[in-house]
Amino acid sequence: MKKLRVGVIGCGSIAEIAHFPSIAGMPDVELAAVCDTKEEFAEHAARKWQAKASYTDYEKMLSKCKYLDAVVIATPPKFHREHGMAVAQAGVNVLIEKPLACTNEEAWDIVKAARAAGVKLMVGCDRRFWSQNQWAKELSRSGVIGKVVMGRATMHEHVKFYQDNIAFTDFRLYPEIAGGSAVSDTGAHAIDLLVWLMGAPVKRVLGIADRRVLPEEYSRCDDTAVIMMEHENKALSYVSCNRFSPVVSQFTELYGSEGTIMTSSDAQNPYQSAPLAVYTNRDYRHEELPELLREYRWPQVFWAEDIIADSVQKRWVSLYPPREPNNYANLWRHFADCIISATEPLTSGEDGAHAVEVMCAVFRSMETGSWVDLPLQQEVIPPYYCRD
Ligand SMILES: NC(=O)c1ccc[n+]([C@@H]2O[C@H](COP(=O)([O-])OP(=O)(O)OC[C@H]3O[C@@H](n4cnc5c(N)ncnc54)[C@H](O)[C@@H]3O)[C@@H](O)[C@H]2O)c1
C-alpha cells in the first residue's frame, strides 16, 4: 500500500496531542518529516513519532522532501500565511490549524495560493469532527427540528488552563503573534461550528471583544467576546467565549421551528450529562424515526409504548456517541480521504477564511459600535497584532 507522506511544521502541543497520534494511528499515512524552529522540539518529535527527518527551517524541509503529499501547519497564527502559502506553492496539500490566519487579507491570500496551485487546503476546525456535532448535523439535516432559526455556541475556558498545562510556548498571551484570544482562539471553534450547523454563511456581525478580567501585564489579548451573527438564510446565532472562567464549559444549541438540539461533552457541561440531546415536536411513528433517535429512545414503561403509539411520545432523547474514534482521528481520516479521492474537505480554506472574516468583523464592530457587513471591504488588523 502506498502511504501518504506527511510533514509537520510546528511540533508543539497540538501536534503532540492531536496530529502525531492521529497520523500514527493510520495505516495508510506516515510521518515523513518534522520542522520546528526549536531544534529540541523537532528532534524530540522525530524520535518519539519516528519521523525520518527533522528540520529547523521549513524551506529546507520543503526543498529536501519533494515527495511530501501533505504538510500540517501547527505554528502560531501569525506564521500561518507564510507557511501555508509556501507549502501550497510547493504543490503540497496543506492542513492548517485554526484560526486560518490573523487578518482577512492573510486568510484569503492562503486560499488563493492553494487554489492557484490546485492543492487541498483544510482548516483544523475539529469541532465539526466531534461525533456529537456530526450527529447533530445529521439529525438537523434529516429535518427533526424543522427549520433551524437560532443557534448559540459557547466556550469558556481560562487561558491559563491550556497555557500552563499543555502549550509548548506562550504565544497565546501575545496579540502581536496570536491575533486575539477569546475571539480567535476559542471563538474560532464556536464561529465555525455555528456557520456549519446553521447551514449558511454569515451576512453581518455585531460584537464585543475586550480585555475585561486578565491583568494587562499578563496578556493584552481580548478575554471576553460576545458575537451576534445574522446568516444568509436569515438564521440568527450567538457566540459567547471567554478566557477567564476557572472551569471549562462549552455548549452548542440549535433552535428549530419543530425542535431543539443541544450538544456539549459530558466533561464540559456542569450536569456531566449526555453529550447530545434532541427534542422533536414532529409526529413520528416509531419506524419512521431517524435511526439515531430510534436507537437511543429508551422506553419509559416498556418497548411496546413506542411501537403501539400512533406517533411516539414527545420528549427529550439523550444520545451517547462513541468516544472513539476521537475528533482528531475523524479529522485526519477525512483529510487523507480527501487527498486520496480528490474531494473537497469539510472544513475548506474558504470556511477558514470566512471564520476569520467574522473575527475581524468583531474587532471592526468594536470600533464602530455597529453591525459590520461581510465580506469585509478592507483588511482589518486586530488590536496590537503585528502584521509584517
Ligand atoms: N484545534 C484545536 O483545538 C487547537 C488546540 C491547540 C492549538 N491549536 C492551534 O494550533 C496552533 C499551534 O498551537 P499550539 O498550542 O500547538 O502552540 P505551541 O506553543 O504548543 O506550539 C507551537 C510550536 O510552533 C513552533 N514554532 C513557532 N514559530 C515557528 C516557525 N516560524 N517555524 C516553525 N516552528 C515554529 C514553536 O517552537 C512550538 O513548538 C495555533 O494556531 C493554535 O490556535 C488548535
Question: Summary?
Answer:
Helix content is 36%, strand content 22%.
Please give a structural write-up.
- The protein has 388 residues and is an alpha/beta fold.
- The chain has two domains: 4-127 and 328-347, NAD(P)-binding Rossmann-like Domain (Rossmann fold), CATH 3.40.50.720; 131-323 and 357-368, Dihydrodipicolinate Reductase, domain 2 (2-Layer Sandwich).
- It is 36% helix and 22% strand.
- The strands form two sheets. The chain has a nine-stranded mixed beta sheet.
- α4 (80-89) packs parallel to α5, α5 packs antiparallel against α13 (349-368) and α9 (182-198) packs across α13 (349-368).
- The longest helix has 20 residues, at 349-368.
- The chain starts with a strand and ends in a 15-residue tail after the last strand.
- Bound molecules: nicotinamide-adenine-dinucleotide.
- Nicotinamide-adenine-dinucleotide (NAD) binds at residues 9-14, 35-38, 41, 58, 74-77, 79, 97-98, 124, 126, 167-169, 171, 185.
- Nicotinamide-adenine-dinucleotide (NAD) is lined by residues 9-14, 35-38, 41, 58, 74-77, 79, 97-98, 124, 126, 167-169, 171, 185.
Low-pLDDT regions: none
User: Which strands sit side by side, in order, in the main sheet?
Assistant: 14-13-12-11-7-10-9-8-15
Name of the CATH class of the largest domain = Alpha Beta
Query: Biggest sheet, in brief?
Result: 9 strands, mixed
